[in-house]
Amino acid sequence: MTIATPMRSPLRLGKLALLISAAALTPYAAAAQDAEVPAQEEAANTLDTINEILVTGTKTKDAENVQDVPLAVTAFNAGTLEAFKIRDISGLSFQAPNVSLDQVGTSRGTANFSIRGLGINSSIPSIDPTVGVFVDGVYLGFNAGVVFDLFDLESVEVLRGPQGVLFGRNVTGGAVLINTGNPTEDFRGKFRAAVDGPVDGGRGGANYTVSGVVSGPIIEDTLLFKVGAYYNKDEGYFRNLFNGSNQGAAETKILRGALEARLGDLTLLGKLDYFESDGDGPAAQNRGFFDRNSYDLSIDNRGFYTNEIWTGSLTATMDIGAGTLTNVFGWRKYDAATDGDIDATPLFLFHSTTETAQEQFSNELRYAISTEDGLDLTFGTFWFDQNIAYTERRQLPLASPFTFYGGGAQDHEVLGVFANAQYELGSGVSIIAGVRWSQETKDAGVTYVRPRTPCSVVDGTCPTSGVNSLIPTENNGFTDRVRFRNVSPKIGMQYEFSAGQLYGHWSRGFRSGGYNFRITNARAFEQIALAPGGTLAFDEEEVNTVEIGGKFQTADGALTVNLAGYVTKIDNMQREVNQSSPTAGVAQSIFNTADATISGFEAEARLRATDSLVLTANIGLIDAAYQRILFDISGNGTIDQGDLNLSLPRVPPLTVGAGLVHELDLGNGNILTRVNYQYRDKAAYTDDNFGWLNDMNNLEVNVTWTTPIDGLSFSVYGRNLLDEVQEGGDTQVPFGGPLSVGAANRMPFGANPAAGTFSPLLRGRNVGIEALFEF
Q1: Three-state SS annotation for 104-165
Q2: What's the rounded Cα separation, in Å, for the pair 52 and 46?
Q3: DSSP letters of 356-412?
Q4: Is there a contact between 571 and 541 (Cβ–Cβ < 8 Å)?
Q5: 399, 292, 282, 390: which is closest to 342 by C-alpha?
Q6: What class does CATH assign to 3-774?
Q7: How far, in Å, CA of 318 to CA of 261, rounded?
Q8: What angle (nearest 5°) sits at the alpha carbon of residue 502, between those of residues 497 and 507?
Q9: Portion of the chain with pLDDT greater than 90, in percent
């Protein structure tokens, strides 16, 4: 059964007019610097080099000024990231409109990214991300191990909207491009030491970080090197009321190396990164017991996580004719184990451990050409293959005397061919056209997460066929194979004039279907999957977006204003539907739940108010609504108007922010002060709207003193200074306290959940100091 409703108005004209007016008066958020400025010069010329922002996300022959790109992009280069004190990608969550780069919190380091309302709320490794993350041009195949410590970054670019024409796969929401530092032609180094932590009483301990990078020539102009090391010891930010111990402790080590060989027209750049981290499990709050605006938590299981990640890439570039041939080979190996207190109470009600192993290989070959008659053309091929194995164990002593075992394994191959072109017709008018053909194949074996004899999917000992020996009326699981083929086109135009540009384009993206590794109700799943027309795999999701924008800059570059409006239509929306389950703790089912429309507007601006002061700001508005319901999202047993009235998960209606960067010249040294404020509206987390994410007022302040000693600086910084509670998720569990009773608490967006929650907390107010020495 389906139900449809007329499309809502994407944006009321009054709101649109208000936003345009606000954007004209407020400055731009992405205060990035010219990527070609040497690192030691950036600190002394922060405001003088702020005007030009170079980006590589369009994959043209040469990097482009962000103001010339007909696309909504927020970019940060090394100097800006240093000024912002960014230590992981989630630190950029409050720097751009309609962007959330948070981690899910269930498993440390697992991304929960959402851009323009397209995101997921899951740590299941078989679910493809909506926001693609690329490190040095290499696509990361799944969300685990993405939000970890970063250092020695060259740049970060956030591209909003579908990017299927040029980027790998599944980038329906947007793309985050992370570029680590390259070897340098001259010998230089950078060493950093920092300590930060909570300043509020009753919370945990300090967080210590040291890192160093050395780079330079081995053979002048021919062979260059870079080596770096990073160490972090976190004593745990939170205080566990169960026993008074710190929660959230972690220890992280990173080793990184790079070699660049310049062999005439051929350049080879190889990078290798080793990452190791271990620490506590999630700092989970049960909101049936505690106020969601507090950092109170009480869990009997400290839990743990361990991660070991190897990442390598080899990039070859060669100038051939009027263009550049580029080949990017990538490899990543990820191994992890976790243990978490999912009931988030001081009782042993629901504990879960997992094991994950992933290995991926990829290769992209492309040729980019720019001709004198105004043609920019990029075309190429893409291959990607990853193997994922995941084991989950659940202990629910009140529901079953036996431990639950299950999970899944999958081989995933992607083949792609793409082309993108922009041709200048004359008088500043250009046409844009692109297309990508993709084929994705998934071979999977799934073992239902059910009470059974001990087994491990990672070790290959969990059965996917036959009958469950502990529950003879159930099957063990299944094996299956599915293939998706699709074409992702893009068509647009650009008009450039002296004060800026206007652009518009339509693009389509796909997120492939697949399999659920956390099936906890075998009978119910098979009843749906084996019914006439049913399948063992969920279907792919299609996203169509129309975007119209403008980028404007005064002749002297002092004022920059970028505007974009968009309408996104999602068909066969993929969702992980989370529901409390007294027999399995949490039932997490993946379905194609609905068709929906998301419309929005965003503006970014920057004003060089004086020689020493830059003002920045951004604003974004989203209106989202279901158009057709395919699944009982509300869980009331029927598909009706109540489903259509629900809010789409992870869609904050409003994000708005403002900031400043001020440089005080001391004659011999300077003081750089950065202040940034960003507000993000509250949003639903679960599809039934019983779980939701707090609104956030985020205030950050950084003050850096560049001393008279060449290369030496000291910083004081504060994050989340208003101490607003932020959570990675808000999943309902059937374990709660006295606050979880009453009909009012069962209403969507109620003060307390119906029966308690698993809500992993993220850090609150955090203040630190840092010493940096560069030579």
Answers
A1: CCCCCCCEEEEECCEECCCCCCCCCCCEEEEECCEECCCCCCCCCCCCCEEEEEEEECCCCC
A2: 12
A3: EEEEEEEEEEEEEEE-TTSEEEEEEEEEEEEEEEEEEEEE-TTT-SSPEEEEEEEEE
A4: yes
A5: 282
A6: mainly beta
A7: 12
A8: 140
A9: 67
- Separation between Cα atoms, residue 426 and residue 374, nearest integer Å: 9
Instruction: Return the C-alpha torsion angle 212, 769, 231, 136, nearest 10.
Output: -60
Q: How far apart are CA 12 and CA 22, in angstroms?
A: 16
- CA geometry: angle at 735 spanning 734 and 738, to 5°? 120
Q: Give pLDDT tens digits for 580-614.
A: 888 999 888 899 999 999 999 999 999 999 999 99
Query: Helix (H, G, I), strand (E, B), or coil: what is residue 746?
Result: helix
Long-range contacts of 464-472 (CB under 8 A, 24+ apart): 468/522, 470/402
Nearest to 410 by CA among 453, 458, 344: 458
DSSP three-state, residue 67: helix
Q: What pLDDT, in 10s, does the model give residues 55-94?
A: 666 777 667 787 888 888 888 887 778 777 777 788 788 8
Average confidence (pLDDT) over 99-126: 84
CA–CA separation, 505 and 131 (whole Å): 19
Q: How far is CA 462 from CA 467, 479, 520, in A?
A: 12, 12, 15
Residues in a beta bridge with 737: none
Give, in order, the Cα–Cα distances in Å from 219 to each of 101, 223, 642, 775. Answer: 40, 5, 69, 20
How many CA atoms lie within 13 Å of 316's alpha carbon, on the beta-carbon side? 9
Laid out side by side, the sheet with 284-285 consists of 284-285, 757-760, 731-732
- Distance between CA 131 and CA 101 in Å, rounded? 9
Residue ranges per structural domain of the chain:
3-774
For residue 758, list its beta bridge partners. 731
Give the whole-angstrom CA distance, residue 138 versus residue 136: 6
| Helix intervals (H) in 255-338 | none
Closest CA to 138 of 309, 363, 343, 346: 363
704 burial type by CB count under 10 A (0-12 exposed, 13-18 middle, 19+ buried): buried
| Among candidate residues 335, 287, 63, 257, the one with its CA nearest the CA of residue 177 | 63
Rounded Cα gap, residues 617 and 603, in angstroms: 8
Residues 545 and 698 sit within 8 Å (Cβ to Cβ)? no
pTM greater than 0.85? yes
> Residue 230 forms beta bridges with which residues?
211, 254
> Which tokens hold the place of 614?
């830059």
pLDDT band, residue 3 (cuts 50/70/90): very low
Q: How far apart are the first and last CA of the chain?
A: 67
Three-class DSSP category at 50? coil
Do 649 and 683 touch, CB atoms closer than 8 A?
yes
CA 31 – CA 29 distance, rounded (Å): 6
* Alpha-carbon dihedral sign for residues 318, 316, 56, 366: positive
Structure tokens at 639: 């598909």
